[in-house]
Structure formats: C-alpha cells, structure tokens
Amino acid sequence: MDETIQSFHRVLGLLGVSFFSKVDKPSKQWLFFQIFNFFIGFLAFLSTSAFVIVHSGNLLLFIQGGCIWTTGVIMFISLGLCLVFRNKFRMFLNEMIFKDGMVDMPFIKYVLENENSGALKELKVLVRNSQKNLLRFTRILIKTYVASVWLCATLYMCGPIYQMIMLNDSSLRLLAFDMWFPWSFDNFYVYVASFLFHFYCCFLCCISFPGLQCTIILLVSQPIRQLRIITFILQNLNEISKQLQGNNKENWQYCASQILSQCIEHYVKIKKFTNRLNVICQPFYLTLILDSIMLVCMCSVKIAVASKFSSDTMKYFIHGMVFTLVVLMFCLLGQQVENKCEKLEWAITEKWYLFDKNHKTNALIFSMAVGKGMPIYIFGSTALSLPTFTWFINTGMSFFTLVMSVLDG
User: Fold this and answer.
1) pTM here?
2) pLDDT tens digits, residue range 222-231?
3) What Å distances lie between residue 83 and 8, 15, 32, 276, 386, CA to CA?
4) Which residue of 60, 268, 307, 363 lies most exposed, with the fewest beta carbons within 10 A?
C-alpha cells in the first residue's frame, strides 16, 4: 500500500495537492502552490477560449484550437476540484484507501486474524489479494497514464521547435499550443516567456489529468472490490456459518443471520460513500464525456485532412486515443458497479430455502435494496456504463461526419 500511496503523492505533489500526504494538515506553502497552479490553469482556459473565439471564422483553425481548448477545460476543472474539494478527497481516502474498509466488518476482522480452512480460507485470500491487486493496478495505471500524456505533450512541444530549426527563419515565432495572447512576439524574450508559459501549462496537464482521474478510479474501485467480497460471503453463507460453529451445528442459523446483518450494514456504508463521491465527481464526469466527444471529433478531422505520416497526425492520434481510453475506463467502472450489484442481488437469494423465516425476510428486504443498485450518474438518469461509451463513440463520429461534409462542401 505504501508504494501506491507514494506514487500518487509524488504525482499530485507536483501540483501542490496533498491528498496522499502522511501529514493531516499540510503547510500553507502547499496550499499557496496549489492556488497558483489553479490560477495558471485559469489563464490557460482564458487564452485557449480567446483563440477559439478569434478564429471562429476559419473552420480548420477553429478545430485545431478546439483540440487545445477542450483539453484546457478539463485541466482547469481538474485543478478546481483538487483545490475546492481537497478536504473531502482527503476524507474519502482516509475512509477507503489508507485503511482497508472491509476490516470494519467484525466478521472480516475475525477471518483475517485467525487461521482457517475451506471457504473461510478462500475469503481470507480474497480479501488480501484483491486489495494487493487493486493497489498494484492503480499504481501501474497512473504511471502508464503519465507516460502516455507526456508522449502526446512532447509531440506538441517539440513540433514547433523542429519546424523553426528546419525552416531556419529567425523571425518565425511558433508556439506549442493554440492560445491567444494580447501581445506581440517580435521581442524574442517575450516569445520565450510565452513558450515557457506553454511548457508550464503542458506540465499541469500531464500531472492533473492522471493525478485526479486515477484518484477517482482508485476510490470507485474500492466499493467494487468490497461488493465482490460481500457477494462471496453470501454465496457461501451456509458453509461459512457451519464452519464457524464447528461441532455446535445447532447455532449455525443464528450465525448466518448475524453475518447477513453485518453485510447489510456494510453495503449501506458503501452506498453512502459512493453517493457522496458521486455528488462531487458528477460535474467532472459530464464535462469529461462532452469535452471528449468534441476532442475526438476534432482530432479525427485533423487526422483526416493532414498528411498521413506527419508529426501532426501522430500527436492528434495519441491525443484522441488517450481521451477515448479515459472515457472507456470510467464507463467500465460504472458498468462494473452495476454488474457487482446484480451478482450480489442474485447471491442474496440463491440459497434462501436453507434458512429460517426471519432470515428469509431480511434477505428479501436486502435484495430489494440491492436491486436499485448504486449507479454512477453523470446527468439526469444517464449513468456511466458501456452503453454510455457506445453513445459517446456514435456521437463523436456523427459530429466528425458533419464537419467533414462541411469541409468537403
């Protein structure tokens, strides 16, 4: 766990974000640095918005600037979420990540502290291995994400430098990103300062995207893992109860009812957690999907009209691919939550006939509650799921077809 937390802290710490810091109350210098980065993100948002507005009459330049504008919007919102909800994110991490939330169940704590066999041993292995696998997956994910974004950003940064070297024109002033500035670049030092501003904005993108998004993925993945563990318990409730009672087979029914009540209590805790997290992240999900639709469309247009082997083609391809994969990851998370709730509902009533009337009543009520699920809503009744990703692809390609028809006309 420490290695994963350190990886996240190294990435987010570059922004002044202290979610994963071991210190509960970070210094004022951290907060000042975070506010400074948010201000730079705000300036980048204004500059990219101005470029898009100024070049609204030139469709190709508008599309080219739109690719940067959509990226700047998500960066600005990511920095804003990290700043405004820094205390709540810290609270979420304390609740689900810094300690294993499953240990809050007395039954799970007993299983982990004792040597057992059969279903209890399988449960113990499941609890430990699922936690290790989750932390290892998110650690690999954030490193891969950072590398992918840096690759795309490097192509954007090196492209204008390479062109200026090849053209050998000392008066040429090319920038990495399409931004509007209220000053001239005739002065070389002004141009260098503007290019350094681009570089710093690029740095913010490369850190804020993986940092916040992987943090959300880590937080949402924990309820998925815990739903899987509760499902295993209820699927093997009969065997587990008898194994716990040993030679005293008469009280297995009481034991099963106690374990069921603990599972119900923990499910309520998980659902409350996901609801609180979703309240904060819902605007981010909506912005991410809508912005990604526009970005994928615009990147596809730039690829279609550019030379197939140019550096522009490669950078727009990676840009669009990264955002598509990000939307896919979040939609898969939402689908996993839905799938785990369906499996849990089935597990609750799978062997209902083995238990007494009181247990059956509690199981029926629990099943009805689980049947409502815990969907991750992004707008209205629309939830993150694979059908949402299908809609995302179809909408993006529809916009692409529309824009290409306008360009061909």
Assistant:
1) 0.90
2) 999 999 999 9
3) 16, 10, 10, 17, 30
4) 307
